[in-house]
Write a structure and sequence with these properties.
The protein is mainly alpha-helical.
Length: about 325
Amino acid sequence: MDLAPSPPLGSGIFTGFTRLCKGLAVILIGGYALLQFFPSAVSYLALIPARTIPFAWNLLTAGYTEQTLPGVAIGVVGLLFLGRSLEPLWGSREFFKFIVVVNFLISICVFVTAISLYYITTQESYLYTPLSGFHGVLAGFLVGIKQIMPDQELGLFFLLKIRAKWIPTLLALVSIAVSFFVPESASYLPTMLFGIYTGWLYLRYFQKRPETGLKGDPSDEFTFSSFFPEFLRPILDPIGSIFDKIFCGRRLQTSIESRGLALGGDPLPGSDPIEASRRRERGAKALEKRLAAEKLATVGIKGVPDGDDASENV
């Protein structure tokens, strides 16, 4: 038989990117390149609140238009690596739907905020500053990571370890703090914050889960107050209950009860389909990591056969 050389141990880091993520990455790079050759195109692609009424399409195009090289680099890297974790669990259709819906909701929120700030401050910069970038959707992806593996510890800058459920909150705090010291970054702040909020809103109430037949994630680990420290939750939980009544009503409660009731009327242990689905997802991800680690360890021990062994095998 033919003997193929073993792949380098570090090659797995840059593999496994989905076709959809690669295509969206090309769009981000292409949009940045277009602005370099035709700078005037920013007036048609970015969100400029004063021109949104005649050019309403910029509510969609702004999220895929990067104006700076660091912005497109962060957008592409974040899309590829976060998408590699989220798309297999959500499915390509739901993953793409999340991007489109969250991007549109972010643009609507940013537009309303800019108009409101203009009427409050009468500063025209709120109306004519081009706003764009994929960073809002990336912030929404981090909410998805919080939902899927909230207790997974992630390393930041090779020094600090933090649980995934606190990543969106840390991002919001850092973005707010930086905006005080770097005024230019303040234009990114609304997009970032609305990305976190609309990402949670979509995943909490509207994302369709084919394995359960339900929409959203009603678990206690994914409430609005879960983004905040424990001592603030008694204050925020009543606010979160208002969202539950607006978006869910009795639909979700009735659906869960109909699936999980025992003969005596008490829910069966582990009958919550959402929680069961999340356990399966976590187990599958943990198993995948373990198998990958074992495969790398095996490759490292065996190595590539030498010439004599190869000739005998042939």
